[in-house]
Structure formats: structure tokens, C-alpha cells
Write a structure and sequence with these properties.
Mean pLDDT: 87
Largest sheet: 6 strands, mixed
Structural class: alpha+beta
Shape: globular
Number of helices: 7
Number of strands: 6
Low-confidence stretches: none
Oligomer: single chain
Helix content: 40-55%
Strand order of the largest sheet: 3-2-1-6-4-5
């Protein structure tokens, strides 16, 4: 739109980005999701007993479980591995690190993304109180998308 393109071109550009956006995140506990009716009691009980940090991916409107690490340290490590698998090294990345009262792991993730990728944009944001009320404290995630072309090819 800033380049004077018409509505159809802007819409097509937005849809192309939507297809590439990913969110990888983990939660510290399923307690709040269970209390809100979003997770069955048996899943909450099992995850609590095993102290799992359920990790999920959101892509094109579909949520999938991708890992179940047992510590926050391992969850951050696994999130980095998964993001590294999904981001082409030669593509500029746009990313946002999101957290709900989990500043330390969010900062670790932010520093890693900044050092690992060529970032066009990189933000850190705390989840809104409304989202935090549904998910609870301890959520950490990274939302990101990459450019179509390598930086050198697009420049």
C-alpha cells in the first residue's frame, strides 16, 4: 500500500505472508487452559504429574503439538531447534518473541534470534492480560515469517 499498489495487490501480498507465518510456543502449565475448558482434565493431570511444558505450533490456522519437554530450559532449547528448522538461513526474518510473565526465557530467545538470523524486524512483547488470563503465566513463544527471496537476491 505504501508503494501505491491497489487493493488487490495489497491483499495478495498479505495472503502470501499469512501462508508463511508460524508461531512456536510452550506453556508452563495446562492448569489455566483446563480451568477455562480448553484442555481435558486428564491432559492437565498428566502434564502436571510429569511436569511437561507442552509445545505447539500454529500455522495457517491449525494448532499442532510439536514437543513435550520437561523443563523450561529444554523447552527454550527445543523452540530454538524448531525455529532453526523452519527459517531458511539465507532469508530475512520478521519475528516477535511473546511471553506471559516469563521475561527471562523470552530475553534468551530474543538474543538467540537476533544472533542467529538476519532480522528485518524483531520485537519482544508481553501477552495482553486477556490472553494471559486464558493461558496463564509462563507462556513463551516466537511468531515469525521469512521473506520470499534471499536478502542479496531481493536487494
Amino acid at each position: 500500500a505504501g508503494d501505491g499498489q491497489g487493493l488487490e495487490q495489497v491483499k495478495a501480498a498479505a495472503q502470501a505472508v499469512i501462508a508463511r507465518v508460524r508461531l512456536l510456543a510452550f506453556v508452563d502449565t495446562l492448569h489455566y487452559l483446563w480451568k477455562g475448558g480448553r484442555v481435558p482434565g486428564i491432559a492437565h493431570a498428566g502434564a502436571s504429574l510429569l511436569r511437561l511444558k507442552p509445545m505447539f505450533e500454529l500455522a495457517e490456522g491449525e494448532v499442532t503439538s510439536v514437543a513435550r519437554p520437561r523443563t523450561t530450559r529444554n523447552a527454550v532449547k527445543r523452540l530454538k531447534e524448531l525455529m532453526g528448522d523452519r527459517v531458511a538461513a539465507d532469508r530475512p526474518v520478521h519475528a516477535a518473541v511473546l511471553h506471559a510473565d516469563a521475561a527471562a526465557p523470552a530475553e534468551e530467545l530474543h538474543s538467540w534470534i537476533e544472533s542467529e538470523f538476519e532480522c528485518e524486524e524483531l520485537y519482544v512483547s508481553e501477552f495482553s492480560p486477556v490472553m494471559g488470563a486464558h493461558i496463564g503465566p509462563g507462556l513463551v513463544g516466537a511468531a515469525f515469517w521469512t521473506e520470499d527471496l534471499p536478502k542479496s537476491a531481493g536487494a
